[in-house]
Amino acid sequence: MNMNRRHILAAAMALSCSLGLGTAHAAAANYPVKPITVIVSYPPGGDTDAIARLFAEKLSERMKQTVVVENKGGAGGVLGNSFVSRAPADGYTLLFTPNPFTTAPMVLRLAPSASYDVLNGFEPIIQTATQPLILVANPNAGFKTIAEMIAAAKGGKPVTYASPGAGSPMHVIAEWLNRSAGVKIQHVPYRGVGPSVTDVVAGHVNTAWVTIGAVSQYLANGRLVPLAIGDAKRTPLAPNVPTLVELGYKDVIVGSWNGFFAPKGTPVDVVNVLNAHLNEIVKQPEVVTKLAVFGALPAGGAPSVLGKTNASDYEVMGKIIKDLGITAE
């Protein structure tokens, strides 16, 4: 009797699992049956918001379903990111984010209860694009190369750099360069790339670390001078600008990326459907052209690519942030 009972329980559990898997596959097969919301953890008007809306529009066209972008800015992206981490894992609430997603909890020094699990709290969907970082200078700063800038700083001249915010990738790479070069170029944090660009063009700060799209017009008309790229290799978006690696700072490599995440537990089939559509979207000529306007290059690949990129940034950037004592305060 006990043996029969065990057999019955085992069969019931197997049937339950089978039904559960069947339900999940059925849901994925019909997905999406209602509008999808893409959360952007920053205010409207910036690069992240614009790129998210570009992908949302294209995703809506391909999936024959409404895809809306909702901005939930605040706390360096933590508010919106945390919101998605707690959303139902059904594929109808997604996160589109740049790479401060990985480092924001570190630089804000948040308790786990006030933040989100960077490595285990989401399902990666796709890395959509990369955005090389560039260091630019006002022509009146008195230097036109990294070597001249470092010499000026070592010679006692006050030199400043703008970033779009404390704890941003731009802040991290600038402080990393400071340490590697043995100088102390003064940080002037802003609330976003736009204000930092405005002030470097006006000469209120000597230099700024930004994304290329934000300064392309000023580089073209000579109102800003390019000094270096933060990627490991030169970018086709500014092929004549050397990297810090080329200039002798071989370990100073920081870039920017963006991508889509879903809440942890989102069905694999749903993630794969989204990944397949978005991989096709990043190849579209119109999308490639529009990304270039924002200083971005299409990426793509399997969900694991984004997962590995996020994990690598968590390790490498985390160490630099800790070593340099970088905070958002």
Task: Please report the total strand number as a whole number.
Answer: 11
Q: Per CATH, what is the topology of the largest domain?
A: D-Maltodextrin-Binding Protein, domain 2
Distance between the termini: 67 Å
**In percent, how helical is the residue content?**
40-55%
Radius of gyration: 23 Å
The geometry reads as globular
Oligomer designation: single chain
Which CATH architecture of the largest domain?
3-Layer(aba) Sandwich
Give the low-confidence spans: none
How many domains, in number, for the residues?
2
Compressed to H and E, one letter per element, the order equals: HEHEHEHEEHEHEHEHEEHHEH
- Strand line-up across the major sheet: 2-1-3-10-4-11
What is the CATH superfamily of the largest domain? Bordetella uptake gene, domain 1
What structural class results from the helix and strand content? alpha/beta
Average of the residue pLDDT scores: 91
Number of helices: 11
Name of the top-level CATH class of the largest domain: Alpha Beta
**What fraction strand?**
15-25%
**Main sheet?**
6 strands, mixed
InterPro entries: BUG, Bug_dom1, TAT_signal
Family: Belongs to the UPF0065 (bug) family.
Pfam families: TctC (PF03401)
Protein name: Tripartite-type tricarboxylate transporter receptor subunit TctC
Topology of this structure?
Layout: H1 2-30, E1 36-40, H2 47-63, E2 67-71, H3 78-85, E3 93-98, H4 100-108, E4 122-131, E5 133-137, H5 146-154, E6 160-163, H6 169-181, E7 186-189, H7 193-202, E8 207-211, H8 216-220, E9 225-229, E10 256-263, H9 268-281, H10 285-293, E11 297-298, H11 303-324
Parallel strand pairs: 1-2, 1-3, 6-7, 6-8
Antiparallel strand pairs: 3-10, 4-10, 4-11, 5-8, 5-9
Helix pairs in contact: 2-9, 4-11, 6-11
